[in-house]
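From the methods appendix. Each design record in this collection lists the tokenized structure first, followed by the designed amino acid sequence. Records were kept in a plain field format so they could be parsed without special tools. The example shown here is representative of the layout used throughout.

RECORD:
FOLD TOKENS (104 positions):
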């Protein structure tokens, strides 16, 4: 009822404003939703890539440690100390254990 009392100029201004504002709000909301989804997907992808890189670094470190342990296991100092401890016990193998400690 109140709109009937308004002038044609006022009605045209309100109609034109609504004709511009409603599509802008719709497009703005749609773009925000799509952008948010894109950011979430990018974040997930980056997290997966970081996890994969960390996994590769850990795997490389473990491989290097295994190589080092394998190389150390065939050195005479380690073999002698392990044999003496196995044969006589730790108490009688102090000289070999000390030599091994110096080696490491």
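DESIGN:
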């Amino acid at each position: 009822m109140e709109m009937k009392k308004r002038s044609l100029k006022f009605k045209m201004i309100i109609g034109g404003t609504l004709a511009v504002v409603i599509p802008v709000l719709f497009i703005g909301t749609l773009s925000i939703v799509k952008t948010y989804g894109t950011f979430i997907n990018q974040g997930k992808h980056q997290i997966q890539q970081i996890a994969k890189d960390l996994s590769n670094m850990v795997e490389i470190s473990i491989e290097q440690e295994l190589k080092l342990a394998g190389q150390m296991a065939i050195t005479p100092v380690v073999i002698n100390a392990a044999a003496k401890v196995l044969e006589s016990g730790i108490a009688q193998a102090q000289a070999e254990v000390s030599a091994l400690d110096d080696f490491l």
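APPENDIX NOTE: The longest helix spans residues 8-73.
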